[in-house]
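Q: Structure tokens for this one, please.
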Amino acid sequence: MKLLAFDTSTEFLSVAVRSGTAAALAHDGPGGAHASAALIPAIMQLLARAGLRLAELDAIVFGRGPGSFTGLRTACSVAQGLAFGAGVPVLAVDTLLAVAEQARELQGAQRVVAVLDARMDEVYSAAYEHQAGRWMQRGDVRLGSPEQVVVPPGWVLAGNAFSAYGGRLPHAPACIEALPSARALLGLAPALIADGQAVAADRAAPLYVRDKVAQTTEERAAHAARLNPS
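A: Here is the predicted structure, written as tokens:
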């Protein structure tokens, strides 16, 4: 398949292109405030290197969330705009699923609790089990404190929350630093497309788990007091 994938849900920008059986071409760089300006040039450069036009793609794949509100909106709007113009479908993939896939690619993990830093003293989490070549989600996507993450016996933790919350996350046999990379999205895409999850551009949407994007002054003070008790 000919696929373009990108993710801007974290502080990193990740873009990748794959054409058939050729090795994927990838670009990784700073995200956040830089993502909206850097994403389209990175996409066009990779497509040019791969010798592909947008209209030749089988799908445009993006990380739909959960994650940074601005990053999710950026990725979705770019995917929709490019797909409308090229007449190709869009595949929106859960970022926590992409974390699980990245952990499988890095260390062969088969049972993963994926965790992403949600800021505001919280994490996003979801559990996935890899069986017969497919990922199965076990339970809902959750938003809560690090202490509320549930890790079944023998499962591993993977994500980007260890530096911020490592001492507060539950024990696991392994903790794998992993992000929802564009390469992971490429790995997930063929099975998801085969399952009929690619849609027309106007049906693609971000996944927002949190409605609130900032803390009040009182909440920030309470958080600071927890971190620095007197």
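A few notes: Confidence is low (pLDDT under 50) at residues 212-221. The two ends are 58 Å apart (CA to CA).
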